[in-house]
Design goal:
Blueprint (H helix, E strand, L loop, with lengths): L4 E3 L5 E3 L2 E4 L4 E2 L2 E2 L2 E3 L2 E3 L2 E4 L3 E5 L2 E2 L3 E3 L1 E3 L2 E4 L6 E5 L2 E2 L3 E3 L6 E3 L2 E4 L8 E3 L2 E2 L3 E2 L6 E3 L2 E4 L5 E2 L1 E4 L16 E4 L1 H5 L1 H5 L6 H6 L2 H6 L14
């Protein structure tokens, strides 16, 4: 979705592409519209059932909610829900809906890794601003709240934003804060193995202008 506003009010689930997923694969999608709801994500509001993949997706729009993320608002631990989220990025502003929103994250708002529900997040990055109040329990540059930080591998975020990867938790070896200059360097963008063909086709001039800065459109781990 290139522009506009999706507003679910106080409804629970709201996303730029999908509001609520029960195991659907979501591949090669992008959003530049603003999104407002409860569980809110730039791509999907919440995933609450089944085994699924979210990959090759990006968000440029402002996303506002209670559990809110640039890609997904909430990954559940119920109903054998297992999600592989990979090769995604966010460049939109992610902000709390009110003073008591519970989770705000650049990629995912809330990730509940229960026993037998091994959600994974790999090769993602966030350069969007994280806006949370002093009353927001959890806010992070990558994930607002997560049971198992080791579920993230090869993920990056823009430094000097006043938040760590997981809010109050320290970074892991697989999450790295980078300066803007490092993200703009050719080595960072070159680490992306194969940009999504659909993303490369659909990235419009309007969507590009709506993003902040001049970060690479897609990126993987920098070459060491």
């Amino acid at each position: 979705m290139a522009s506009g506003h999706i507003n679910a009010g106080n409804s629970s689930f709201c996303g730029g592409i999908v509001g609520w997923s029960n195991g659907a694969d979501i591949v090669d999608c992008w959003n530049a519209a603003s999104v407002t709801g409860g569980y809110s994500g730039g791509i999907v509001g919440a995933v609450r059932d089944g085994s699924s993949t979210i990959s090759g997706c990006y968000n440029l729009g402002t996303v506002k909610g209670d559990s809110v993320g640039g890609i997904v608002g909430h990954l559940s631990s119920i109903n054998s829900c297992t999600v592989s989220l990979a090769d995604c990025y966010n460049r939109g502003e992610i902000i709390h809906k009110d003073d008591y929103s519970n989770s705000v994250g650049g990629i995912a708002g809330r990730v509940q890794n229960g026993s037998g529900n091994p959600h994974t997040l790999a090769r993602c990055y966030n350069t969007g601003t994280i806006g949370a109040s002093a009353n927001t329990p959890s806010s992070g540059a990558l994930v607002g709240w997560i049971i198992d930080p080791d579920a993230l591998t090869d993920c990056y975020y823009l430094a000097d934003q006043g938040v760590t990867a997981f809010g109050s938790d320290a970074d892991t070896e697989q999450t790295t804060a980078l300066a803007a200059e490092e993200m703009q360097a050719s080595g960072f963008a070159a680490g992306w193995a194969r940009p999504s063909r659909q993303i490369m086709r659909s990235r419009s001039t309007a969507a590009t202008r709506s993003s902040s800065g001049s970060m690479p459109a897609t990126s993987r781990r920098p070459k060491r």
